[in-house]
Write a structure and sequence with these properties.
Radius of gyration of chain A: 28 Å
Number of strands of chain A: 10
Distance between the termini of chain A: 87 Å
CATH superfamily of the largest domain in chain A: Response regulator
Largest interface: A-B, 53 and 53 residues
Order of helices and strands of chain A: HHHHHEHEHEHEEHEHHEHEHEHE
Oligomer: homodimer
Strand order of the largest sheet of chain A: 2-1-3-4-5-10
Strand content of chain A: 5-15%
DNA sequence: CGGCACATTTAAAACGTTATAAGTTACCTC
DNA sequence: GAGGTAACTTATAACGTTTTAAATGTGCCG
């Protein structure tokens, strides 16, 4: 059983163990590198993290060997020792299912996390609308180093919880807490303002906007932008109260259809999403109304879907992959201990003034 | 510095350490439970895993205390010791961005993984179409206990690699390897067959089907189903070669539009996705052709989007959340060491024969 | 009552990493 | 050449869990 290669066998155990470790096929550890180079495990660890106290020659050698044998630090061991998980948790909301909102964001996040030790783990929310329980669990049990979530409310309990615990996070969407916190948000005020102005510029005299549920912060932003444009132009307007952007799409279509059949129907639509724009088109067409003739739409575009199918829908772009990438970048900075300055990003809509 | 509470200080260290451990606020470990109950750490560990050698009384007591103090095993420590990661990795393909394909699947997976120690981590693929490098990395470095991916090819190199390494995985989609492997697939043959039959039953005499890229297995299934229905009915048909379902949607629309303006245009469309159905409608309407009048569509429905917007599009449903849930269930069984029997699920389309 | 099986509990080691503190040289100064 | 100080390197312990092997006690048999 004992290795027959070794002739002197008494105090030789360390050396014998060495050869063994190098020859054994198991995945390489610090120990493997230590045995190959002749340095101690500690030195190897230090060298790999480029500690200044380790001589440059040693560092080079260790890095070289590490690369050669394809060494990769064991995440579990690192996590156990340091307490850092190297995990970013994304709270997935069922509402994000549609049109790949979640997927786009995650692709962006993943891009930002590339070439870092961080992994992206998905924590879905089945229960209620605010995943505060899930967050509490993550914070209390140290399941992640940072959190990403969206659809914020002005006094979002999730944000409150995280601020209280000093836990790193970045939201997609703003809040109204006095304590600032990192976020990446789309300038929905400008979007709604600009969309509505374009409708008016095209001669539309009764714009409508379908808003997200009122409790969410960006609903207020959209409303504000819409109202500003409407008041500046002095036109009439309409805001449905029965439906919102989270409604099933057939409800939206039916509402629009019903409304189109009544007097004083809106003749311009600022749509916060591509699907609601499609629903609007279909609802209007029930009454023979044609896009670009009797009415216009300016919609927010977050995928390649809408604009390409219906070229007559004017769109303003929101780049969710870029959003995710920025959120990732900021979260990494925040985890690294950066301060909360320059960690609030408001992405401006790509405004291309219409040729009219 | 030393705890002043303890009067006898010589061989008392263990006891002192105990009180310390209980009183300290840090997150509870096995040690905490051991100190409270008076059992050894080993016993506690055993009791929590319900080892039969531990007396029932002890097990009860330990579980009770664990619940009281909210003990949760440290994932890193478990992983380090056992080698199991408790991680399921999902390979995210950029093509899954549209219409929440990926998100739906992940919601289903998460549902299956609920109340298990498994976490869902997202591994996106930026580079090429086959994430074989990502997989090799995961397998070689033990980054996960199981893998989930989709869009399989008949001799998918990813499947080959995983089979060779005996690594647990479940695919969304079948292959043609002789070695069976776990999969969950939608019966795309039946879908295409049934969709085409419905078109013909409605009196359409020249059905068209837009297929996914030929290299993917389910493309062949769709083709086969389509051809079977077409041949049974003895009608003409058309299969575009210039475009596929992965094409940008405006290309699809333009193709349909162009085709609609030529002689012998198709009058029925079997659409493998909702977006292509919308593109078809738009393309056809360029030439004044109306859905339900000059032509019909039967589409695969994977979200709440299409059918609800365009009620005149007939649909056959594919439940991606259910798919994900089944994949999760099967993967867990596979990881637990189950054999490859009963691990191949073919989900039948919900066929509601049209009233016509 | 020695011994043996059984039931239950425990001590010790290990997984791979990092942090702390302690070595080991070589070189310089007076 | 004693003493000190850089410049590197290293031994040891620890993170929290599971595993292996050993220990403890209890009852039964001859």
């Amino acid at each position: 059983m004992c290795s027959p290669r070794v002739s002197i066998s008494l105090p030789d155990t360390p050396k014998s163990a060495r050869s063994e470790s190098v020859l054994k096929g198991g995945k390489p550890t610090l120990r493997t590198i230590a045995d190959i180079t002749g340095f101690a495990v500690t030195t190897v660890s230090r060298a790999l993290s480029n500690a200044p106290q380790i001589s440059l020659d040693t560092r080079k050698r260790v890095h070289q060997v590490a690369a050669e044998i394809g060494y990769l630090p064991d995440r579990a061991a690192q996590r156990l020792k340091t307490g850092r998980t190297n995990v970013i948790s994304v709270l997935l909301d069922p509402h994000e299912e549609i049109l790949g909102y979640g997927t786009s964001l995650m692709l962006g996040l993943a891009k930002a996390l590339k070439n870092t030790p961080y992994h992206l783990i998905v924590t879905p929310n089945f229960i209620n609308d605010s995943n505060v329980d899930a967050i509490r669990h993550i914070v209390r049990n140290g399941m992640a180093d940072g959190l990403i979530f969206s659809r914020t409310e002005p006094f979002d309990p999730r944000v409150r919880l995280l601020l209280e615990n000093g836990f790193p996070f970045v939201t997609h969407g703003r809040t109204e807490f006095t304590t600032p916190h990192p976020y990446v948000d789309y300038d929905n005020f400008s979007f709604a303002y600009e969309a509505t102005r374009r409708l008016i510029a095209r001669g539309r005299r009764k714009p409508m906007i379908i808003l997200p549920p009122k409790r969410m912060t960006f609903s207020q932003h959209l409303l504000h932008g819409f109202m500003t444009a409407v008041r500046e132009a002095g036109v009439t307007y309409e805001i449905p109260t029965e439906i919102d952007l989270d409604c099933p799409v057939d409800q939206i279509r039916d509402y629009i259809s019903r409304r189109a059949g009544q007097p004083d129907a809106p003749d311009g639509f600022a749509c916060g999403g591509e699907v609601s724009a499609l629903a609007t088109i279909t609802g209007m067409s029930d009454h023979g109304l044609t896009l670009g003739v009797e009415y216009d739409i300016v919609a927010k575009q977050t995928s390649k879907l809408l604009v390409n199918i219906q070229p007559r829908v004017e769109t303003i772009y929101e780049d969710l992959t870029d959003t995710g990438e920025q959120m990732g970048r900021i979260l990494l900075a925040r985890i690294a201990g950066g301060e909360t300055t320059d960690m609030q990003v408001l992405l401006k809509p790509q405004i291309n003034f219409p040729a009219v």
